[in-house]
UniProtKB/TrEMBL annotation:
This is Periplasmic chaperone PpiD. InterPro entries: PPIase_dom_sf, PPIase_PpiC, PPIase_PpiC_CS, PpiD_chaperone, Trigger_fact/SurA_dom_sf. Residues 265-368 form the PpiC domain. GO terms for molecular function: peptidyl-prolyl cis-trans isomerase activity. It is found in: Cell inner membrane. The lineage of its organism: Bacteria, Pseudomonadati, Pseudomonadota, Betaproteobacteria, Burkholderiales. GO terms for cellular component: plasma membrane. It comes from Herbaspirillum frisingense GSF30. The keyword Hydrolase does not apply. It holds the Pfam family Rotamase_3. It is a single-pass type II membrane protein. Keywords: Cell inner membrane, Cell membrane, Chaperone, Isomerase, Membrane, Rotamase, Transmembrane, Transmembrane helix.
Length: 639
């Protein structure tokens, strides 16, 4: 049972690392062959992974994690030799999987690729059609073309097919799942005897020597952290945009060049009655369907108000018949062409002759018309001005970023030069510490990377500016200290009351634990229920109200002989003895939860299959770790 749980935990960690280091999997580098090739860091299926590719993947990962975690992001975790090795492992796995895709000639059909792209959020126009222009803009912003993106997506989907084929082979034997669920459901009836620390307060004798010894041993508890008052400047898109001048002529020109963005196409609302007939149906069937449609047209020409009633009674379109044939508003391109041509040629309230399409014959009534319209310039003037500023800022940011870097470095004793030249406000903050302050929120200086640059000897002792630190995409921050207070230990007399309280609690806890352990030994030798609390029931799925220490002790207790006694120390709460009197399975089980547990077991086994398969592909692709990887790792470890 516990071996399986530990395996499952490792697999859950694996899944977490899949998120941290996308997109497939990674595995340890132990066992790789080593070469002396200096041109790269690894070779997979005859292809070399270069140091540049490794560095680029590492930078991209750091940026992804910074965007996910914001100010909570600690670059030290992901900038370690272990993290870099994991990224290299991921690159190796991708190459090995890619080589297998090619070897097996796995291909993603155009139709499947197209369906995947159509599901990308934000690329649907109001009329429901795909926005090709926005698609190209989004890709261009990431330095890609539709062709390059689609080629990469096709490769990734092919690899997913390969992975899915392997993982789908896993299954969990029913007896294994039942045994694990039974262990989860198992209920233990327990009584408790509590030894509380405050019960031993009268026995504690605290001397000045004890207080002084505790103060000396736990000095860090009585320190005030280093603090600094700082000033800083921020260069970001908003600061650049604020300096961009936009004239009315600029706005007007943009409006005229991009009128399609501010225009809505003509839309029509229509109802229809569909008499279905297959496209390749015999002529007699088609004639009968058309005759029925013509008969309905004749009735409607006499009584137009009966359209909804006749649609409910006669239309063979299940999607609209119940609504009286109503199809709602639609623009051109939303309907099949014969239907669209007829609907956009009719006047409001006019009823068509039978219109033939691949679905059969339609009788159409136009019930509403929304003419094409263009928003007036005045209504979108502010929006256009903001967009132009945004575009100017995007072009100007790189130039100003270079200036920012140079000015901060060349005028290392002050931020005035960069402030004056780039028109950036010098901002201040007090009580800044080396650690992130969650209460401060997303302030520019409350960033792990910036704080690391700030708390250096060059800034603290030499009073220099920090380097220009990129804290987010298109955001640079530089700062300097105006005052600094190092770590200081508060005087003993100032904290004596706190020390005395801590020593008293420590001694009370020790006495409670000692008394509890002595009583536990007596109870294990001779059963005695005197003093125990009322019985409670606990299981692995019903553990509310139990501390982790108590729960672990009770569930690990050897229940071969009942009653069974176990003890647990809870810091600050003394010592508890637990008397287990009954172990049984519940009379009813949660079938839905058991099903979910079985699915989790299958998922875990699927991941095991995937790991084993990747290990096989690594060997098949003749993966070799090159000399460059060892050299880079040694450099990292020395930092």
């Amino acid at each position: 049972m516990f071996d399986f749980i530990r395996t499952h935990q490792r697999l859950m960690q694996f899944l977490l690392l899949l998120f941290i280091f996308p997109s497939f999997a990674f595995f340890g580098l132990e066992g790789y062959s080593r070469l002396t090739d200096d041109s790269g860091v690894a070779k997979v299926a005859g292809q070399t992974i270069t140091k540049e590719e490794w560095d680029a993947a590492h930078r991209q990962q750091l940026e992804r994690m910074r965007q996910v975690y914001g100010n909570q992001f600690d670059s030290k975790i992901f900038d370690s030799p272990q993290a870099r090795r994991a990224i290299l492992d991921n690159l190796i796995a991708q190459r090995a999987l890619g080589a297998e895709v090619v070897a097996n000639k796995l291909v993603v059909p155009d139709q499947v690729l197209q369906q995947s792209i159509l599901q990308i959020p934000g690329l649907t126009k109001p009329d429901g059609s795909f926005d090709n222009e926005q698609y190209r803009v989004l890709l261009a912003a990431q330095g890609m073309t539709p062709k390059s993106y689609e080629a990469g997506l096709r490769r990734e989907m092919a690899v997913q097919q390969l992975n899915a084929a392997i993982q789908s082979t896993a299954f969990a034997p029913r007896t294994v799942a039942e045994n694990l669920s039974n262990l989860n459901d198992q209920e233990r009836t327990v009584q408790m005897l509590n030894f509380k620390p405050d019960s031993y307060a009268a026995q504690v004798k605290v001397s000045d020597d004890m207080l002084k010894a505790y103060y000396d041993k736990n000095g860090a508890r009585f320190e005030t952290p280093e603090q600094a008052d700082i000033e800083y400047v921020v260069l970001d898109a908003a600061a650049v945009a604020a300096q961009a001048a936009v004239t009315d002529d600029d706005i007007k020109a943009y409006y005229e060049q991009n009128q399609k963005q501010y225009a809505t196409e003509e839309q029509r609302r229509a109802s229809h009655i569909l008499i279905t007939v297959k496209k390749d149906a015999p002529a007699a069937e088609k004639a009968a369907a058309k005759a029925k449609a013509e008969g309905l047209v004749a009735q409607l020409r006499k009584n137009p108000g009966d359209f909804a009633k006749l649609a409910k009674a006669n239309s063979q379109d299940p999607g609209s018949a119940e609504n009286g044939g109503d199809l709602g508003y639609f623009a051109k391109g939303a309907m099949v062409k014969p239907f669209e041509d007829a609907a956009f040629s009719l006047k409001q309230g006019e009823i068509s002759d039978p219109v033939e399409s691949d679905f059969g014959y339609h009788v159409i009534e136009v019930t509403g018309i929304k003419p094409a319209a263009v928003k007036p310039l005045e209504s979108v003037k502010a929006e256009i001005g903001a967009e132009i500023k945004k575009q100017i800022a995007a072009k100007k940011y790189s130039e100003m970023a270079d200036q920012f870097n140079n000015l901060v470095y060349e005028n290392g004793d002050s931020l005035k030069a960069v402030s004056d030249k780039l028109k950036l406000k010098i901002q201040t903050a007090t009580g800044v510490t080396r650690a992130l302050n969650p209460a401060a929120g997303p302030l520019p200086y409350n960033n792990a990377k910036f704080l690391t640059a700030l708390f250096t000897d060059d800034v603290i002792k030499a009073k220099h500016n920090t380097e220009a630190v990129q804290t987010a995409p298109n955001t640079l921050v530089a700062g300097r200290m105006t005052s600094y207070k190092p770590v200081a230990k508060r005087p003993f007399e100032e904290v004596k009351a706190d020390v005395q309280k801590a020593v008293l609690q420590q001694e009370e806890q020790a006495l409670a634990v000692k008394a509890g352990q002595e009583r536990l030994a007596q109870l294990q030798a001779k059963d005695d229920a005197t003093g125990f609390s009322d019985a409670k029931v606990v299981s692995r799925v019903k553990s509310d109200g139990w501390t982790q220490e108590a729960f672990n002790a009770v569930m690990k207790a050897d229940t071969a002989k009942l009653p069974a006694y176990v003890g647990a120390e809870t810091q600050g709460l003394g010592y508890q003895i637990y008397r287990v009197t009954k172990v049984e399975q519940p009379k009813t089980v949660d079938t839905a939860r058991r099903k979910a547990e079985q699915e989790q077991i299958v998922a875990a086994l699927s991941q095991q299959e995937a790991l084993a398969y990747l290990d096989y592909l690594r060997e098949k692709a003749k993966t070799k770790l090159l000399k460059g990887a060892a050299a880079v790792s040694a450099d990292d470890a020395a930092k």
